[in-house]
Write a structure and sequence with these properties.
Blueprint (H helix, E strand, L loop, with lengths): L4 H21 L3 H21 L3 H25 L12 H24 L5 H17 L2 H25 L1
Helix pairs in contact: 1-2, 1-4, 2-3, 2-4
Length: about 160
């Protein structure tokens, strides 16, 4: 039987790199966000190939679920009537749809070929990550939280000053 892991790896890496480039190249902010989501999903596929299930799910839930929705709300709250409208490029839409379809197929292939691990092993993995975060890197973890809080408050203050 043919081992398809290298094929999936190179395909996911190619999609991640290509969509990351498209995040910078695309002129429409909605397309930038869609390609950013594709980059996150391709990175989650790479984490799955490394048998880091928790990190793959964290990548999907945190980055795609929270950050992408936050970016979308920010884009929607901006006054887009003042920004020059960019003509819709259907090539970008086709690329995004094709990449998303390929990534969905790769998720299905990985899920069907990998042996399912026991829930106890996964909970031990999560417990060990938590132990490392809250013992060895406690100060760093708290400083990152403080930095995010300051960034959020600064953004609110800047928005209130403009109004």
């Amino acid at each position: 039987m043919i081992d398809i892991t290298p094929i999936i790896f190179y395909l996911a890496a190619l999609i991640a790199i290509g969509s990351a480039v498209m995040v910078v190249v695309a002129h429409n902010t909605i397309y930038n966000l869609l390609f950013l989501i594709i980059t996150f999903i391709a990175t989650a596929v790479l984490w799955l190939l490394l048998h880091a299930d928790f990190l793959a799910l964290a990548m999907l839930f945190i980055n795609v679920g929270a950050l992408a929705v936050l970016f979308m709300l920010t884009i929607m709250l901006l006054d887009l009537h003042k920004i020059k409208r960019v003509k819709t490029n259907w090539l970008y839409t086709a690329i995004a749809g094709g990449c998303t379809s390929i990534l969905a197929i790769m998720f299905i292939i990985i899920a069907s070929t990998q042996k399912l691990r026991h829930a106890k092993h996964i909970s031990n993995e999560i417990r060990s990550i938590g132990n490392v975060l809250y013992t060895h890197y406690f100060v760093t973890f708290e400083l990152v939280g403080l930095l995010l809080l300051v960034a959020m408050l600064s953004a609110v203050i800047l928005i209130k000053e403009e109004q």
